[in-house]
Amino acid sequence: MTQATWLCSRSALPATIDNRLASSELGGAGHLGLWLGVLLLAAVAAPGCRDDGTASDAPSSRRHPLRITTTCGMVTDIVRIIAGPRANVTGLMGEGVDPHLYKPTRNDVKRLMEADIVFYSGLLLEGRMTDTLTKVATAGRPVIAVTAALDEQYLREPPEFAGHPDPHVWMDVAAWSQCVAHVGESLAAFDPEFAEEYRVRAAEYRQELGALEQYARDVIATVPESQRALVTAHDAFGYFSRAYAIPVRSVQGLSTESEAGVDDINRLVDFLVTQRIPAIFVESSVSEKNIRAVIEGAASRGAKVAIGGQLYSDAMGAPGTYEGTYLGMIDHNATTIARALGGTAPERGRLGRLSVATPTPSALGASP
Question: What pTM was estimated for this model as a whole?
Answer without folding.
Answer: 0.81
